[in-house]
Amino acid sequence: MASDGVPKVFSLKEVEQHVAQDDCWMIIHGKVYDVTTFMDDHPGGDDVLLQTAGKDASEEFDDVGHSKSAIEQLKDFYVGECSEVLEKKLESVTDAKPAAKDPPTSTNGAGFYSKILQFLVPLMLLGVAVALRKYSKKTADAKY
Predict the structure, then answer these.
(1) Domain 9-94 is found in CATH 3.40.50.300
(2) Helix (H, G, I), strand (E, B) or coil at 30
């Protein structure tokens, strides 16, 4: 971060130059991180970091499901922002068209029957088990 408190802004091209074991940067949600010093300590290994080095690794980072402490640890590696990635994300959100004129569909019907079945099937199995036990006792008593 710049000395005046304003984050340094990097271009995507600048970040793309940092893809080596001894110089590894990545972008996560528009923020640029220099993870070079973390390569040996990363629980998933340095290969995981090198695969996403020099590019937007937001999706890969989110897909793994990092812990709160891992997310908090990112602050230690923060070096600036990448406005190009933020702009692309903003464009994709603003370009997304609202749903067409299709009326909303209700999915409650399938959910309702599913809930009923989740309740009735075990209840029916219990009834069958009780009936079999009772029937088998009567036939066993009749034999002796």
Answers:
(1) no
(2) coil
